[in-house]
Amino acid sequence: MNSGFRVLVTRRAERDIADLDPVARRRVQAALLDLEREPTARARKLTSSELGQYRVRVGDWRLVFDLEGRDVVVLRVGHRREIYRRG
Questions:
Q1: Structural domains present in the chain
Q2: Cα(53)–Cα(60) distance, rounded to whole angstroms?
Q3: pLDDT tens, residue by residue, 8-42
Q4: Helix (H, G, I), strand (E, B) or coil at 31
Q5: How far is Cα 25 from Cα 76, in angstroms, rounded to an integer?
Q6: What is the DSSP string of 44-61?
Q7: CB within 8 A of 11, min separation 6: which ones?
């Protein structure tokens, strides 16, 4: 039952995912499938939209994404300690 959301992963996010260990990569990929069904179900709105509009927690990892109509654009994937740092 697809609600019509399409997940688009930026090149930067693809590189972030490729750098993950295999266990974390599988968990992130499962979270990406969840985003297709209902992107805001587990998401939290970020207070500063500088990095993105929303984030989803996957253990110690965060997926930062924007909603553009029916498209979920994954911008970054990173460790909770480092994802929000600037620079």
A1: 6-79 (3.30.2310.20)
A2: 19
A3: 999 999 999 999 999 999 999 999 999 999 999 99
A4: helix
A5: 13
A6: EE-S-TTT-SEEEEETTE
A7: none
| Stretch 50-68: mean pLDDT | 94
Paired residues of 66 in beta bridges: 73
Q: Supply 9's token pair.
A: 């992963």
Which pair of structure tokens corresponds to residue 28? 């992130």
- Both tokens of 49, joined, read 């939209």
Helix or strand run (H / E) with residue 74: strand 71-79
Among 35, 13, 37, 17, CA closest to 26? 17
Residue 22 contacts residue 86 (beta carbons within 8 Å):
no
- pTM equals 0.89
> Sign of the C-alpha dihedral, residues 66, 68, 8, 39?
positive
